[in-house]
Amino acid sequence: MNKREVDVAVIGAGTAGMVAYRQVSRVTDRVVLIEGNQYGTTCARVGCMPSKLLIAAADRAHEMAHAELFGVAPGGVSIDGRRVMERVRNERDRFVEPVVRSMQSLPEAHRLMGHARFLDAHRLVVGDHTEVTAERIVIATGSRPAIPGQLKGAKDRLVVNDNLFDWEDLPDSVAVFGPGVIGLELGQALSRLGVRVRVFGRGGSLGSIQDGRIRDYALATFRSEFPLEPGAEVSEVRRTDDGVEIAYSVDGRQARETFDYLLAATGRRPNVDQLDIQNAGIDLDDRGMPVFDPYTLRCGESHIFVAGDVDNDRPLLHEAADEGRIAGDNAASWPEVKAGLRKTPLSVVFTDPQIARVGLTLDQVSDACKGCFAVGEVSFENQGRSRVIGRNRGLLRVYGEHGSGRFMGAEMFGPAAEHIAHLLAWSIEQRMNVAEMLAMPFYHPVIEEGVRTALKDLNGKLNMGPGAGEDCMECGPGT
Ligand SMILES: Cc1cc2nc3c(=O)[nH]c(=O)nc-3n(C[C@H](O)[C@H](O)[C@H](O)COP(=O)(O)OP(=O)(O)OC[C@H]3O[C@@H](n4cnc5c(N)ncnc54)[C@H](O)[C@@H]3O)c2cc1C
Ligand SMILES: NC(=O)c1ccc[n+]([C@@H]2O[C@H](COP(=O)([O-])OP(=O)(O)OC[C@H]3O[C@@H](n4cnc5c(N)ncnc54)[C@H](O)[C@@H]3O)[C@@H](O)[C@H]2O)c1
Q1: Does the pLDDT value for residue 474 go beyond 80?
Q2: Cα separation of 321 and 143, whole Å?
Q3: Of 391, 388, 461, 460, which is closest to residue 420 (Cα–Cα)?
Q4: Radius of gyration over alpha carbons of the chain, in Å?
Q5: Of 110, 115, 422, 444, which residue is the catalytic one?
Q6: Ligand 2 within 6 A of 315 CB?
Q7: Which residues of 326-363 are buried (b: 16+ CB within 10 A; e: fewer)?
Q8: Structural domain spans, the chain
Q9: Checking DSSP bridges between strand 233-240 and strand 228-229, what pairing results, if any?
C-alpha cells in the first residue's frame, strides 16, 4: 500500500471537484484530486451536453414537420437515427476531450485514480493501492441514477442516461419512467425523433414544476404531443422476446404494452453510500447524508466539506461549480471558514416549451411573506412575438410581496424561458421591486413584452400601479 500525506484531498473529479481542486491548488501544492471512474464529468459525458444535443436534433425535426403553419412545405421529414446518434456522440466527445486533457495536464502528484473510502476522519484508502492522510477533505462524488427494483425486470433493455447516448441508432419505442427533468427532456426529444414513447410517472409530479397552474398547463401541452401518465400504477415490468412488456393501469383502465427499451429517469442518488462515510466522524442525517452548512459547505465543525450533487441540494451544474469554489476556498483556508455567495435559485428544463423557475417557489413565497403576496400572470397564447414565430403556448407567473413590492420569484412554461429566467433571476439578485423592473426598457415586438404584462398584472394586484391592460398607450399590439 502506497502512503501519501496531503493538506487537502478532493474526492471526485467532476465539476465540483475540479473547481475545488483549482481553488486549493492556488494556496498549496500538497493537494490530491481522486477519481474513481473516468475523467470528463457527468455534465459533459452523460448529462447536460449530450442531452441537449439530442434535444437539438429533435427540435429541428419538430420545426421542419410543423413548417406548414407558415405555408412552408418541407416535403416530408426523414430522420436518420444513425446520423442523429453519431452527431450526439461526436459532439459529446468534443466537449469531453478538453476536460480530460485539462485533467491530464495537472501535475502527476496531484492526481490519483481509484475509488476512495474513509478509514477514519483523516485517512482515505484509494482503490486498495494508496492510503491518503489528509488534513482536510472535500467530498465531491456526485450522484448516480436511482433505479427502483421493479424496473430491473427490463434486464438488458434497461437504460439510463449513462448509456443512452452511446446508442448507435434510435430504437422504435421507449418506455420512459419518471416525468422529472431528465424524463421530460429525453422523452419529448425521442418522441420528436419518431420514437414511440410513453412516459410513466408516480404521484402526479411533473418536471420540477411547483406552481399548480403551470403544472396543469404543461401537462396538457405535453399530453397533446405524446402519452404521459403522471400517476400510472405499474404492476409488472418484464423482459420478453420482443422487448420490455409493461402492465399498468391508469384511472382503473388496465393495459399491457411492449417497448424496445425502458429508460429509468426516476431521480438520482447521491454517491455517499459507498464512501464508508460512517468512519468520517461527521454527523449524518436519518438517510445517512452528511449534515452540512449550505453557505460554508462544512460538515459540522469538522475539516470535511461537501460540494456538488453529492449534497443533494440544488443538483445543477452552475451550483456544483459554485459549491466547488466555496468548499475549495474553505478547505484551503481552514480552520478559517467563510460563508460563500449562494446565488438566486435558477433552473431551466430544455423541453419545448421550456420550463423555468427562479427565486422562491410559490409555497416558499407564501411562507416568506406570511401570506401577504400577489401573483401576476401572462399567457403566451396571444402574446405578439410568440404568435409571430408560432411559439404561442405557455404561462408565466410572477410573485411579489405586498407593501414592499419586492419581486420574489417566478415560474414559467413558455417560449424563450431560458433567457427570460436569467432576466428575472438577475432582477432578484439586484433586489429589484416590481416597479423598478417595469421601468426597464422593453423592445417591440419581443417575448419579453409578455414579462412586462405579467409584471403589470402583479403591480396592479399589489395595488402599486395600473394593472395589465390599463394605461398602456405606449404598448404595441399583442404584448
Ligand atoms: C441527463 C442529465 C442532464 C443534465 N442536464 C443539466 C442541465 O442541462 N443543466 C444543469 O445545470 N445541470 C444538468 N444536469 C446536472 C449536472 O450534470 C450535475 O449537477 C453536475 O454535473 C454535478 O457535478 P458534480 O461535480 O457534483 O458530479 P460529477 O460530475 O458526477 O462528478 C463526481 C465524480 O466523482 C467520482 N466519484 C464518485 N464516487 C467516488 C469515490 N468514492 N472515489 C473517487 N471518485 C468518486 C465520479 O466518478 C465522478 O467523476 C444534468 C444531469 C443529468 C444526469
Ligand atoms: N435542464 C436541467 O437543468 C437538468 C436536466 C436533467 C437533469 N437535471 C438534474 O438532474 C436531477 C435528476 O433528474 P431526474 O429527472 O432523474 O429526477 P427528478 O427528481 O427531476 O424526477 C424523477 C421523477 O421520477 C418519478 N419517479 C420516481 N420513482 C418512479 C417510479 N417508480 N415510476 C415512475 N416515476 C417515478 C418522480 O415522481 C419524479 O417525477 C434534476 O433534479 C436536475 O437537478 C437538470
Answers
A1: no
A2: 15
A3: 391
A4: 24
A5: 444
A6: yes
A7: bbbbbbbebeebeebeeebbbbbbbbbbbbbbbbbbbe
A8: 2-145+269-333, 149-266, 346-462
A9: unpaired
CB atoms near residue 408 (< 10 Å) = 22
The rounded distance, in Å, linking the Cα atoms of 67 and 55 is 18
pLDDT in tens, 85-117: 999 999 999 999 999 999 999 999 999 999 999
The pLDDT of residue 364 is above 80: yes
Distance 412 CA to ligand 2 centre (A): 18
- For ligand 2, the distance from its centroid to the CA atom of residue 268, given in whole angstroms, is 7
The label of the residue with cell 426597464 reads: 440
Nearest CA to ligand 2 atom 14: 267
Q: Are strands 268-270 and 143-145 parallel, antiparallel or unpaired?
A: antiparallel
Please report the ipTM that was assigned to this predicted complex.
0.98
**DSSP designation for 23:** H
Whether ligand 2 lies within 6 angstroms of the CB of 180 is answered as yes
* Statement: 149-266 belongs to CATH 3.50.50.60: yes
Give CA 434 to chain center in angstroms.
28
Decide if 318 is catalytic: no
Question: What distance in Å separates the CA atoms of residue 28 and residue 18, rounded to the nearest whole number?
Answer: 15
Q: Could you say which of 1.10.3860.10, 3.40.50.300, 3.10.20.30, 3.50.50.60 is the CATH number of the domain covering 2-145+269-333?
A: 3.50.50.60
Measure 64 CA to ligand 1 centroid, in angstroms.
Answer: 34
Residues 283 and 212: beta-carbon distance below 8 Å: no
Asked if the domains at 2-145+269-333 and 346-462 fall in one CATH topology, the answer is no
Instruction: Check if 202 has its Cβ closer than 6 Å to any atom of ligand 2.
Output: yes
End-to-end CA distance of the chain: give it in Å, rounded.
69
pLDDT tier, 134 (very low <50, low <70, confident <90, very high otherwise): very high
What's the pTM value of the predicted model, to 2 decimals?
0.97
Q: State the DSSP string of 222-272.
A: HHTTS-EETT-EEEEEEEETTEEEEEEEETTEEEEEEESEEEE-S-EEETT
Question: 177 - beta bridge partners?
Answer: 200, 264
Please tell me the distance from the alpha carbon of residue 311 to that of residue 289, in angstroms, as a whole number. 8
CATH fold label, 346-462: Enolase-like; domain 1 (3.30.390)
Give the ligand with the smallest distance to the CA of 162: 1
403-426 confidence digits (pLDDT tens): 999 999 999 999 999 999 999 999
**Ligand 2 atom nearest residue 183's Cα:** 15
Question: How many residues does this entry show for the chain?
Answer: 479
Q: What are the respective helix, strand and coil percentages of the chain, to the nearest 5? A: 35, 25, 40
